[in-house]
Amino acid sequence: LDTYNNLTLKTLMGLEWVSKHCPNASYVVKADRDVFLNLAYLVRQFLVPPKTNFMTGHLYQNTAPLRNKGSKWYVPHEVYPNKTYPPYCGGPAYVLSGDLAQKIYGVAQTLPVMNMEDVFMGICLRALGLGPTASPWGVYNMVRLEFERCRFSRLVMVHHYQPQELLRVWPSFQEAPATCHR
């Protein structure tokens, strides 16, 4: 079922598809349906030249599992016994190098899957002896920002934009003056 608790499996299926059908991809982007994503800025500012063993997004460090059974993000001790998670990129959107997508998919087959997809990617990175790369502050926004063409031209991701809103703001974003794109 396409449910929040199965998001980890859905992401792993995507990584499997990439591994089998796009083994030479330079990068893979995982993005939720409710994000504004500025791929041109991402590529221009952060992905040239191509990198290996690379993952970036909004970086979380030293976060603790939520043990409240009423929380959407509840993780029992049996699923994850440690006091803090390894560093990971927030789930709304992150980018990883193509080689790392294949490595994460491979190591995931050896680990117990958990419902926190973004945390699980961090666990996979740790199992590989790697970690995510911090992005410049503010280019991955986990909170909604009101749309402003020039401001958004210098952002990679803004969370909490519904598909109908994206259809409305995208044409305006495409018309942003060249002076906005830096």
TrEMBL record:
Recorded metabolic or biological pathway in which this protein acts: Protein modification; protein glycosylation
Compartments (UniProt record): Golgi apparatus membrane
Coiled-coil blocks: none
Topology class, membrane: Single-pass type II membrane protein
EC annotation from Swiss-Prot or TrEMBL: 2.4.1.-
InterPro entries with a match to the protein in the record: Glyco_trans_31 (IPR002659)
One Pfam assignment: Galactosyl_T
Signal peptide boundaries: none
Enzyme class per UniProt: transferase
UniProt GO cellular component terms: Golgi membrane
Keyword Protein biosynthesis: no
Keywords: Glycoprotein, Glycosyltransferase, Golgi apparatus, Lipid metabolism, Membrane, Signal-anchor, Transferase, Transmembrane, Transmembrane helix
BP GO terms, sorted: lipid metabolic process; protein O-linked glycosylation
One of the record's GO molecular function terms: N-acetyl-beta-D-glucosaminide beta-(1,3)-galactosyltransferase activity
Keyword Isomerase tagged: no
Primary subcellular site in the record, as a coarse category: Golgi
Family from the record: Belongs to the glycosyltransferase 31 family.
Cited PANTHER family: BETA-1,3-N-ACETYLGLUCOSAMINYLTRANSFERASE (PTHR11214), HEXOSYLTRANSFERASE (PTHR11214:SF151)
Name of this protein: Hexosyltransferase
Source organism (scientific name): Bubo bubo (Eurasian eagle-owl)
Lineage of origin: Eukaryota, Metazoa, Chordata, Craniata, Vertebrata
